[in-house]
Amino acid sequence: MSITHIVFDMGGVLVELQWLDRVKTLLNSPMTLEDLHRLWVSARSTANFETGRIDFEAFAMAFIEEFELAIAPERLQHEFLEIVQAPLPGCNQVLSALKPRYHLSLLSNTNPAHYERLRDRYDFFDYFDRLFLSYQIGLMKPSAAIFEHLLSTLNTPADTVAFFDDGLRNVEAARALGIHAYCVDSPAAAMAVVEEFS
Q1: Is 183 helix (H, G, I), strand (E, B) or coil?
Q2: Would you state the pLDDT for residue 41?
Q3: Long-range contact list for 21-28, CB < 8 A, 24+ apart?
Q4: What is the DSSP letter of 126?
Q5: pTM of the model
Q6: CATH number for the domain running over 5-16+85-194
Q7: Under CATH, which architecture does the 17-84 domain have?
Q8: For the chain, which residues make up each domain, given as ranges?
Q9: With 90 as the cut, is the pLDDT of residue 7 above it?
């Protein structure tokens, strides 16, 4: 296997998320992480926000309306921002170790509110050669189109790419295009896989 490009998801792989707990509390509904991944790409409000079609204020109003929540938009925005926390242990060390050996990209379903919050607080984005952010591209995982865009932009065959994500549907979508894709939940778990590459 000749891997030249490594592509990381952000939340749940490199950055701690309080996604499940906070969304479960907001919606007052039990759900698993896979349930949440499905809801996130199918809900109109989140899909519009994370593909760059609406701004943060419009998203808050739309999310409240879509899920019939009895909370103020400001509270929703606060809770939403708090979903993204600090980089997970080993994030910078793993990226630093991989950077001399691989072309590094980030492929994330995200929005300007979360991206700017992380960019302004942490420096892990500096390790990446390319950022593929859903709100800038107008596409979201697990759509095949976002992976096709990634491969086209990187100008590399699918079998030279290793992709790490915490969402099984995203991993399966990447594999369907011939990308070596792995379901992991930490920088250390990703590094353990990379160390098996020959």
Answers
A1: strand
A2: 85
A3: 22/79, 22/80, 22/82, 22/83, 23/83, 25/79, 26/67, 26/69, 26/71, 26/76, 26/79, 27/67, 27/69
A4: G
A5: 0.94
A6: 3.40.50.1000
A7: Orthogonal Bundle (1.10)
A8: 5-16+85-194, 17-84
A9: yes
